[in-house]
Write a structure and sequence with these properties.
Length: 237
Amino acid sequence: MEENSSKEIIKMTGIEKVYKMGSNTFKALSNVNLTIAKGEYVAIVGPSGAGKSTLMNLIGCLDKPSSGEYILDGVDTKCNDNKLAEIRNKKIGFIFQSYNLLPKLNIYENVELPLLYLGYPNGKTKEKVKQAVEKVGLTSHLKHKPSELSGGQMQRVAIARALVTEPQMILADEPTGALDSKTGKEVLRMLTELNNEGNTIVMITHDMEIAAHAKRIITVRDGMITSDKLNDSEVIA
C-alpha cells in the first residue's frame, strides 16, 4: 500500500450514496466533498436521517460509495472487499456507542483482537495490549469480562481496543450515547487528551453539546454538508 506523506487523512470528492428499494431509489448522500487533516478533532453532526451515519460508514470503510472518490491516508479505497477490510483494520480504530465487546472474552482478549486480525503473532501482542489498557486506566481489570464492568469502563476498553493498532484515525460513533452525564464527560475528556497527543479523532453525534468538545464541526442535512466551521467555543474538557 502506498503510504501518505501529506497531511490529509481523509479526502472525499463528489461522494454519493444511493440505496435501491425495490423499483425506487433513495439518495442518502449527495456530492459530499470533505477533507480532514492529520491531528484534527472533528465532530460530524446532524439530525436523525440526515445522512451522518451513512457518511460514517463510508469514512470507516464499512460501506462503499455509489460514486465519487475516497482517499484514506493516501490509499484509494476503490477496491475489493478483502482489500477494503485490510485498509480498515490497519488505518482506523473504532469506538461504538454499544461498545461491541465480545462477552466471552476478557478485557485483555478483547483489546488484543484487532492485532490478531492484522496477523500479529499471539506472543507479540502482550506489550501493545498492556500499553493500550494502561492508557485508559484499566490495568487491574485485564482478566475481567465485559459483564463485570460499568458502562464507562466498557467504553474505556473500546478506546483501548481502538488505540492498540496505532491507527491513523479514531472513528467514534456516539461514544457517550449509552453513558450517564458524568461518565460521558470522562470519555470526552479522554478523547480530547488523545487528540492533544496527536491522534486524529472523527466523532459522529446528534448532540451539539457533545460536538462542542471538537475543534471543528461539520453539519450534515438531507445528505449534504451544509456547514463546516472551526469551533470557536470549543469545550475544554
